[in-house]
Design a protein that fits this description.
The chain has four helices and four strands. By secondary structure, it is α+β, with helices and mostly antiparallel strands.
Length: 127
């Protein structure tokens, strides 16, 4: 994922965390902050030390980044969002994490359901 698609700075994280709206399921919490002037979405990840050692935390972040990468065509472009992992995500594999991410993003309304259906059915939106 390109650096332009990441929320990295502390003040940006805090803005999304404090001013954004949250949605959650058992594995993930999603904070969404609309930015209409932005050309593409940006995402930040947080996986706490309670999730396990650095290897496990990095694996969870890799899974989340890959899931976001695969879902990029279906994600609304004018938002910043944070994905915060909960303890229940530790024992999940990539496909379960992706399914959980799709669920929480659908609840938050940041994913286009028609584009998502096209992605899941193997269709592409390439022109």
């Amino acid at each position: 994922m390109k650096k332009a698609y990441r929320v990295k700075k502390e003040n940006e994280f805090q803005r999304v965390f404090h001013q954004g709206k949250s949605t959650a399921n058992r594995q993930l919490v999603l904070y969404v902050y609309p930015k209409p002037e932005q050309a593409h979405f940006r995402v930040g990840f947080s996986v706490g030390k309670k999730m396990g050692n650095a290897v496990k935390r990095n694996q969870i972040k890799r899974y989340l980044r890959q899931a976001i990468h695969e879902l990029t065509p279906a994600i609304k472009m004018d938002i910043d969002f944070l994905v915060i992992a909960r303890k229940d995500i530790v024992d999940k594999d990539f496909h379960q994490i992706k399914k959980s991410l799709i669920h929480v993003m659908s609840l938050a309304g940041v994913i286009d359901k028609q584009a998502l259906n096209n992605l899941l059915q193997g269709g592409t939106n390439e022109n």
